[in-house]
């Protein structure tokens, strides 16, 4: 079987080009049927906002590239537009690419978890259409295993790489579970709203919103099933709050060190996490000096994100090593499968010779009585089988050993010629 | 101490034990469960203790501060009166966590002035002692655990304050969880040490009469208990948590270790 993977991704094509090649989910089944009609033994189509890729297999005596060309001709009339953006990978390179994609090493945000789900979904559609069931299925199922191994053995997906997620991650580092914790949103900035949404999804249920415009506060509070608080009153509610998100457009500090000192005293030093994403800043930076108060502004959060991205890059290097290791194992396994027919032929040929020689030898012993004949036959069988096994051991081991090597095919050919094995 | 006077003192100690129970419930469950009952018992206990002191004074025809036990009883009563006055004036309920156990232990010690009959069997004596040792060791282990959690807390807190995110620190539990661990282990350790103190005081009283007062090991237990009591007080009453509580827990462990070392070095020095 020959394996080919072709397509475009965020690394090779603009979003306009990717859009042109994209196949909607409801068209995937038909596209897979077309690929099979064009000669593909198996096919899978991965169509996401960042990549459109087609992986297929064809029998050894056929070429996979024309299948793709014909498919693009029939599905996307302007295939010339993809020239220079389209990549085409075969065999080992295709396997490595699939492993990297599944492990989120080829993603725009390295380590993001969605791609694995998207690949699994593409595989499920292909499986449903009967478009996988051989080499491609083996490679894909292994790719899911590799992705799991990468997630388990590296911390590639553990660190937040967006400002709003970084805020949630920090809140978890301070409070542990966010269940039951309270959040106050001051102002109506978009980033503040996004951070509040993430915190709400992570378990923070008591949301308070305050704004100079009362209607805006009520509107935002309704989004989270929260409570609007009069702007003039918000300081009195503050002791009840664990996490404050300040994103108002106020030109001065709306929370001073004295305000926070009073608040923390009322809270009996229970910790507070303050997220200041207002520009200019809404909270006096000196507040961070108060014990139990953790203040992060936009620059601090971006610093956390940068550190996380650097950490993810380090983890990605480790993940690449895992992928390479898995590709080697996969190739060795596939080669072993290729060499199996040769080993079976070899064993059959030797067995035929041995059985024929034992029969001939028994014919040359006319003096044997009918009682002696089965016993002698059994002894000769045992002896000759032992000889054959000992002679066969080394060539078969060598075949298995060489199967995964670069010159493995030549070695297999040589063995087939030496022992006159038929193709 | 006169028999009748001692009886009133023991009744007072029994009433004060409700205060101890309230302090334990407050520390472990972090809510005031029995405060009203304990406060009533405390007031009643103060009356019985006053009766005991007055009676002792009438018997002796002078102020009853003749020995360690009488001084202890008077001090306990004064602490009680000061607490009740402060509570009446300022409603400072949180002070009870510190005062209730302290007054109970002081009164218990004061009530052990007269020797009683010795142990009925050696087995009961050694079981009593074993329970004390196990509880005391559990208390020390809890203090050690509290201090370790406190060190981790300080490291994690420092990272968060400095806004540094190193992957190493991701392995540490969140601050909230560490604070909870410190609080739980402190509460459990306090209860264990308090019960072990009560057991050893009664045990020593039965075994040695009144000569146990200057026993080094028992003094060590009292010092550790005092440190625990201060920790609990600062945490529950003054709301000390986070960095302050963590530092206090480490200091408490160091104090306890120093007390132990000092005690054993002194003992080996004396044995030489």
List keywords for this structure.
heterodimer; A: 423 residues; alpha/beta; 4-stranded antiparallel sheet; 55% helix; elongated; B: mainly alpha; 0% strand
Write a concise synopsis of the structure shown:
The complex is a heterodimer of chains A (423) and B (272). Chain A is α/β, with parallel strands linked by helices and 423 residues long.
Could you characterize the architecture of this molecule?
- The complex is a heterodimer of chains A (423) and B (272).
- With 423 residues, chain A is α/β, with parallel strands linked by helices.
- Helix content of chain A is 55%, strand content 13%.
- Chain A is built from 14 helices and 10 strands.
- In chain A, the strands form 2 sheets. Chain A has a 6-stranded parallel sheet. In chain A, strands 2-3-1-4 form a 4-stranded antiparallel sheet, sandwiched between helices.
- In chain A, β2 and β3 form a beta hairpin.
- In chain A, α4 packs across α6, α4 crosses α12 and α7 packs across α12.
- By secondary structure, chain B is mainly α.
- Chain B has 8 helices and no strands.
- At the A-B interface, α7 and α12 of A face α5, α6 and α8 of B.
Radius of gyration of chain A: 33 Å
Shape of chain B: globular
Instruction: Estimate what percentage of residues of chain B fall within beta strands.
Output: under 5%
Rough shape of chain A?
Answer: elongated
What kind of assembly state do the chains in view correspond to? heterodimer
β-sheet strand percentage of chain A: 5-15%
What is the helical fraction of chain A, as a range of percent? Answer: 40-55%
Main interface: chain pair and counts: A-B, 25 and 21 residues
Structural class of chain A: alpha/beta
Estimated structural class of chain B = mainly alpha
User: How many individual β-strands of chain B?
Assistant: 0
Order of helices and strands of chain A: EHHEEHEHHHHEHEHEHEHEEHHH
| Distance linking N and C termini of chain A | 16 Å
Report the sheet with the most strands of chain B, covering strand number, pairing sense and barrel closure. none
């Amino acid at each position: 079987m020959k394996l080919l993977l072709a397509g475009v991704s965020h690394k090779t094509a603009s979003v306009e080009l990717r859009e042109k090649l994209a196949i909607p989910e409801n068209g995937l089944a038909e596209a897979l049927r077309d690929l099979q009609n064009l000669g593909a033994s198996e096919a899978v189509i991965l169509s996401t906002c960042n990549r459109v890729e087609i992986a297929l297999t064809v029998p050894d005596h056929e070429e996979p590239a024309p299948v793709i060309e014909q498919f693009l001709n029939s599905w996307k009339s302007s295939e010339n537009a993809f020239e220079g953006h389209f990549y085409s990978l075969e065999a080992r390179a295709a396997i490595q690419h699939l492993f990297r994609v599944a492990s989120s090493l080829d993603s725009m945000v390295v380590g993001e978890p969605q791609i694995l789900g998207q690949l699994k979904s593409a595989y499920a559609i292909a499986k449903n259409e009967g478009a996988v069931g051989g080499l491609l299925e083996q490679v894909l199922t292994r790719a899911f295993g590799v992705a799991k191994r990468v997630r388990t053995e590296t911390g590639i997906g553990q660190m937040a790489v967006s400002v709003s997620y970084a805020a949630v991650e920090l809140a978890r580092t301070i409070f542990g579970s966010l269940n039951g914790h309270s959040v106050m949103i001051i102002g109506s900035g978009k980033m503040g709203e996004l951070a509040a949404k993430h915190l709400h999804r992570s378990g923070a249920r008591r949301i308070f919103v305050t704004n100079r415009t009362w209607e805006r506060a009520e509107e935002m509070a309704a989004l989270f099933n929260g409570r609007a608080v009069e702007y003039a009153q918000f300081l009195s509610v503050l002791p009840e709050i664990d996490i404050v998100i300040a994103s108002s457009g106020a030109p001065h500090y709306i929370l001073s060190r004295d305000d926070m000192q009073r608040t923390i005293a009322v809270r009996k030093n229970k910790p507070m996490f303050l997220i200041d994403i207002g520009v200019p800043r809404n909270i006096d930076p000196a507040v961070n000096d108060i014990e139990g108060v953790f203040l992060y502004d936009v620059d601090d959060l971006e610093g956390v994100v940068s550190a996380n991205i650097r950490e993810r890059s380090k983890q990605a290097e480790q993940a690449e090593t895992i992928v390479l290791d898995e590709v080697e194992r996969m190739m060795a396994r596939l080669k072993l499968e290729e060499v199996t027919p040769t080993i079976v032929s070899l064993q059959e040929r030797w067995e035929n010779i041995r059985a024929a020689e034992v029969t001939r030898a028994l014919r040359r012993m006319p003096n044997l009585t009918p009682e002696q004949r089965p016993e002698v036959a059994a002894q000769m069988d045992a002896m000759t089988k032992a000889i054959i096994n000992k002679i066969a051991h080394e060539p078969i081991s060598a075949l298995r050993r060489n199967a995964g090597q670069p010159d493995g095919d030549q070695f297999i050919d040589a063995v087939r010629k030496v022992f006159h094995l038929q193709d | 101490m006169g028999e009748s006077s001692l009886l009133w003192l023991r009744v007072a100690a029994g009433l004060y034990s409700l205060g101890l129970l309230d302090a334990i419930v407050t520390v472990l469950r972090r809510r005031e469960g029995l405060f009203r009952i304990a406060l009533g018992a405390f007031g009643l206990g103060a009356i019985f203790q006053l009766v005991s002191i007055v009676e002792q004074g009438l018997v002796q025809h002078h102020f009853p501060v003749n020995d360690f036990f009488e001084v202890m009883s008077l001090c306990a009563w004064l602490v009680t009166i000061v607490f009740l006055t402060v509570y009446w004036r300022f409603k400072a309920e949180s002070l009870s966590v510190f005062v209730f156990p302290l007054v109970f232990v002081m009164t218990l010690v004061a009530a052990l002035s007269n020797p009683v009959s010795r142990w009925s069997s050696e087995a009961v004596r050694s079981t009593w002692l074993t329970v004390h040792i196990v509880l005391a060791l559990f208390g020390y282990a809890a203090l050690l655990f509290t201090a370790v959690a406190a060190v981790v807390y300080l490291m994690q807190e420092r990272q968060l304050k400095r806004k540094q995110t190193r992957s190493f620190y991701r392995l540490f539990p969140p601050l909230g969880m560490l604070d909870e661990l410190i609080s739980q282990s402190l509460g459990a350790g306090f209860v264990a040490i308090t019960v072990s103190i009560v057991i050893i005081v009664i045990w020593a009283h039965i075994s040695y009469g009144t000569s146990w007062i200057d026993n080094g090991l028992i003094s060590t237990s009292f010092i550790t208990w005092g440190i625990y009591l201060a920790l609990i007080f600062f945490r529950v009453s003054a709301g000390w948590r986070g960095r302050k509580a963590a530092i206090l827990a480490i200091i408490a462990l160091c104090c306890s270790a120093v007390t132990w070392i000092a005690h054993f070095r002194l003992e080996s020095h004396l044995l030489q």
